[in-house]
Design brief:
285 residues; eight-stranded mixed β-sheet; two-stranded antiparallel ribbon; globular
């Protein structure tokens, strides 16, 4: 599971690429499509540690998005969904199951919208589409604090604000498994290492991805099966965005994992893997 870096025409992608270990199944056998794991914003592929070797019958790929982990920073406009497809092309993968959390979940939905032939199924956690709606006081305040810290160029305040998402609105950080809390903070600190400074030492905001638009209306046309798998302790809006996605798509299923918040795969790894396995089996994937 050693990370590697793959040079593409306009970027370098850091990733972990785990081949199937079950010798009885060929990598491209029917029902054994690769599983691509897409991380959330400000973290990286390490959030998928419990899942990387949990699907020995299939190839598992966990890339870092631009400006995260081992991937290069963006110097020109880009779309995260196109980056996923470019990586699939480079790896020789025609179709895959895409699983994503938060930003990664939105990216997975965007791939299904923009490149439907490349997406066999979706597992989405902590979001709906890439255009989530937030009106809950807790979420609005958390995002405002995070943005304020970014605007002021205060890295410690940025980390502290981002850390609210780990326990969610119903717990304190002290109530989260300290290993999980420390990992999320470490990934966020490493993401800050991607920031570049101007001549005055002020952080230069990274180039944001170009958004995919009209995602909620277009989601009605997604033909791939969709599992929304949320942590039950996540914020109200995060949960509702997921419920909405499961309602909107033609083949949607909604489930929650007890005792977990935004990073359900880290806090409830066994439940996450079991739910994904059941979902894939139900759809002969």
């Amino acid at each position: 599971m050693t990370p590697r870096r793959l040079a593409l025409p306009d970027q370098v992608v850091g990733l972990v690429d785990v081949p199937p270990s079950d010798a009885s199944d060929a990598p491209d056998a029917p029902g054994r499509l690769p599983l691509v794991l897409l991380h959330g914003g400000a973290v990286d592929h390490r959030m998928w540690g419990p899942q990387l070797e949990a699907f020995p019958e299939r190839r598992v790929v966990a890339p870092d998005a631009r400006g995260h982990g081992g991937s290069s920073d963006a110097d020109a406009p880009y779309r995260l969904a196109d980056d996923v497809v470019a990586l699939l092309d480079a790896l020789g993968v025609d179709r895959a199951v895409l699983a994503g959390v938060s930003m990664g979940g939105g990216t997975a939905v965007d791939v299904a919208l923009e490149h439907p032939d490349r997406c066999a199924a979706l597992v989405v956690t902590g979001t709906g589409t890439s255009e989530p709606t937030f009106t809950d006081d807790w979420a609005v305040a958390a995002f405002a604090d995070w943005k304020d810290a970014e605007t002021r160029g205060d890295p410690e305040a940025w980390i502290a604000a981002f850390a609210h998402f780990t326990p969610g609105p119903h717990r304190t950080r002290a109530e989260v498994d300290p290993v999980v809390d420390a990992l999320v903070e470490a990934m966020a600190r490493d993401t800050l290492g991607h920031l570049r400074l101007d001549e005055a030492g002020v952080p230069i905001p990274p180039t944001p991805p170009t958004p995919v638009t009209d995602t909620w209306e277009r989601a009605r046309g997604i033909r791939s099966p969709v599992l929304v798998l949320n942590g039950a302790l996540d914020g109200r809006d995060h949960l509702e965005n997921g419920r909405r996605l499961a309602r909107v798509v033609p083949h949607g299923t909604y489930r929650e994992l007890a005792g977990a918040a935004h990073y359900a795969g880290l806090e409830a790894p066994d439940g996450y893997v079991a739910a994904v396995r059941t979902f894939l089996a139900e759809h002969d994937l």
